[in-house]
Amino acid sequence: MDGHYVDLWHRIARETPDRPALVTVGEGVMTYAEFDDAAARFAALCGDLGIGRDDKVSILLHNRPEWLLTFAGSLRIGVVPVSLNFRYRAREVAELLDDSDSSALVYAASLADVVAEAVALLGRPIHLLQVPDVEAPLLPNAIDFTDLHDRDPLPYEDPVDGDFFMYTGGTTGAPKAAVWSTRQMLTMQIYNAYVSSGLPIPETPDDVVRTATDPDRQPIVALALSPFMHGTALTTVINALLLGGTVVVLPTARFDPRRAIRAIRDERVSRVAVAGDAIALPLLEAAEEEGISQLPHLDSVLSSGMRFSDEVKRRIHALGDVVITDILASTEGGAVALGITRADDDLPARFRLTPGTVVLDDELAEVQDAPGSSGRIAFTGGMPKGYYGDPDKTAANFVEIRGRRHIIPGDLVRVLDDGGVELLGRGAAVVNTGGEKVFPAEVEASLLRHPDVLDAVVVGVPDERWGEVVAAVVAVTDPGSADTAAIVAHVGDEIAGYKKPKRILAVADLQRSGSGKVDLARIRALFRDAQTGIVGPKSFR
User: Fold this and answer.
1) What's the CA gap between 239 and 141, in Å, rounded?
2) CA 274 to CA 496: how far, in whole Å?
3) If you compute the radius of gyration of the chain from its CA atoms, what whole number of angstroms results?
4) DSSP 480
């Protein structure tokens, strides 16, 4: 089906103007008419600032209604929204503002210090729009985001196809902006949105609007507990609006599991997006603390990007009639495999390839229909246009094989007898911690900037809650007196907190080979055997 999110949301708003679109816990409700109007006012503000089609507006916000208003308002006029990780430090923010050629930045007032430093590092003018999530003065030359309410909304016109950027987690180096066409994303997501809700696939935009506004259908109520900057959370909420549903927002940067479980209960949430055990486990613990044993309105839990154990899934199924969808996905290729369970009897979960996904062996032959074979997952369905401003990396990662375009994320699998696949690991050196991707070279570079560190190597090591955590071995002059906590703090000052080592060992020598290589298996074994010198902060951040 050919269509545009903005057009569909606008038509749904005209048909059901008073239906709640966004419920911000502790702050209020925004109807579909109000959401549509605010997006139009943001579009008008962009026009007043000289920001037009194909210009870039970066979003540095945690999950707040302003995130979605910026996204929708930008797409309305062909401006490209760019999602940034709100955990990034100033240097990282500056690098991505430069890489994306952003003309404007919408940011939380609570991040004003980071933004001020990033703008100084950027070294060129950029429009600043400050969202007042806390009491804080405006940065110099910044505009208060709430000022858009004083502007006339831009009259509605049929939207043109535009793009939006989603930065990768840096799996193969510095983060890269995957360029998604808005219409391409909708075409991909129609299947996921409707099948996951047990609805027939629409053939026309009229079908979408008719389904979304059907008074006899109970609208979905969705809550994303992972950040909107990640694909699963973003598609969960924009698809909920596509279905005429309500998006519940917890407007804080820090995950509060007790507040989240109360919101699920009180707002009658039917769909929750989590980040595997890292979110689901404390959520379940909070439910026990709150005396919540059943969630009768909850019927769907989605997760992507990290470990989601069968034990935790079993506890979720005990809360009610809940379908759990564990998604193997990438920023570039969407969902490539799904592990769906509907009850205890479906456990252990088994991943199955989605339409358009294949398994390639070392000779690039397809082996997904050959049980016992192993290879790399590749996706041939809807995908981005490529990486912004980087034709070489686009050519390297979006590969044409036998006349078809493929994206190869790097996941290694074994094909099973029943048509499922067993995940074997990731071909790249990326560390996947709590759904966030960490490139070891970036952390090693920061470690080496500490005056006491002579050499360093970073790996991912297994962790029961986070799937993996970042671990580092550093060579120092005197391992016995090394202040490893200070070294970790130094890294946290330079780059995002989730990238800093959660475990660190100090040694006299990394024992590199003559070619300079480190035996990574031996390094990982050090952490299995180590009894001392381990830093393990309780907080993911």
Assistant:
1) 35
2) 21
3) 23
4) G
Closest by CA to 292, choosing from 267, 319, 317, 270, is 319
List the chain domain ranges.
Answer: 5-254, 358-426, 431-529
- Sequence length of the chain is 541
Distance CA 174, CA 95 (A): 10
Backbone angles phi, psi at 245, to 5 degrees: -90, -170
Longest dimension (CA), the chain: 72
> How far does CA 196 lie from the centroid of its chain?
19
Compute the average pLDDT of residues 79-91: 95
* Topology adopted by domain 358-426: Luciferase; domain 3 (2.30.38)
pLDDT average, residue stretch 279-302 = 96
Angle, CA 430 vertex, CA 429 and CA 435 arms, to 5°:
155
More confident residue, 225 or 527: 225
What is the per-residue pLDDT for 10? 98
Span 431-529: which CATH code? 3.30.300.30
Question: Tokens in use for 257?
Answer: 């599991």
Average pLDDT, the chain: 91
3-class DSSP assignment, residue 396: helix
The three-state (H, E, C) secondary structure of 409-442, written as one string: CCEEEEECCCCCEEEEEECCCCEEECCEEECHHH
Pairing of strands 323-330, 334-341: antiparallel
Indicate if the pLDDT at residue 61 is higher than 80.
yes
| Amino acid of residue 138 | L
pLDDT (tens digit per residue) in 363-402: 999 999 999 998 999 999 888 999 999 999 899 889 999 9
Mapping DSSP to helix (H, G, I), strand (E, B) and coil, where does residue 358 land? strand
pLDDT digits (tens, 9 = 90+) for 296-323: 999 999 998 777 999 999 999 999 999 9
- Tell me the one-letter amino acid at 487: I
Give yes or no for residue 90 having a pLDDT over 80: yes
* 146-184 confidence digits (pLDDT tens): 999 889 999 999 998 899 999 986 544 578 899 999 998
Place of tokens 């066409």: 181
**Nearest one of 85, 58, 176, 117 to 497, comparing CA atoms:** 85
Distance CA 346, CA 325 (A): 12
User: 122 is written with which tokens?
Assistant: 């950027």
The correct answer on CATH 3.40.50.980 for the domain covering 5-254 is yes
Strands ordered across the beta sheet of 455-463: 455-463, 467-475, 503-507
Q: List Cβ neighbours of 94 (8 Å cut-off, separation of 6 or more).
A: 117, 118, 119, 121, 122
Amino acid at 461: V
Can you tell me the distance from the alpha carbon of 301 to that of 274, in angstroms, rounded to the nearest whole number?
A: 7
Distance CA 6, CA 32 (A): 12
Amino acid letter, residue 476? V
User: SS3 for 309?
Assistant: coil
Distance CA 46, CA 53 (A): 10
Going by pLDDT thresholds of 50, 70 and 90, the confidence category of residue 486 is very high
**Number of other residues whose CB lies within 10 A of the CB of residue 7:** 19
Residues 61, 26: Cα–Cα separation, whole Å: 18
Distance CA 31, CA 102 (A): 30
